Amino acid sequence: MTSEHIKKLLNESLNPDLLEIIDNSAAHAGHAGARSGGGHYHVTIISEAFEGKSLVQRHQLIYKALGDLMKQEIHALGINALSPSEETKGSL
Q: CATH no. for residue 31?
């Protein structure tokens, strides 16, 4: 359920061209964060909202979009945030 909630929030806030969410929570069973209910996720997101933004600013936009999920439901979040122009360069 949390993966779908993450997807909904990021789609609404950042209108991404691409959004991929990987739930790695099962690989962390028994981990302190997992015991408290927080999941481990990795997000790859390509959005125009990241154009001209630093890595820190991109992460801040994602954390803001996820809001309270970062307090309990998400224990760890890996982020790969690109602008469309960066994604295009990488695929050449």
A: 3.30.300.90
Give CA 39 to chain center in angstroms: 12
pLDDT tens, residue by residue, 40-70:
899 999 999 999 999 999 999 999 999 999 8
Give the C-alpha separation, 76 to 92, whole Å. Answer: 31
**Residues 6 or more apart in contact with residue 22 via CB below 8 angstroms:** 41, 42, 43
pTM of the model: 0.83
How many domains, in total, are found in the chain?
1
Tokens of 43: 């997000």
- Domain with 13, as residue range(s), is 2-90
- Residue 42's contacts (CB-CB under 8 Å, 6 or more residues apart) are 21, 22, 24, 77, 78, 79, 80
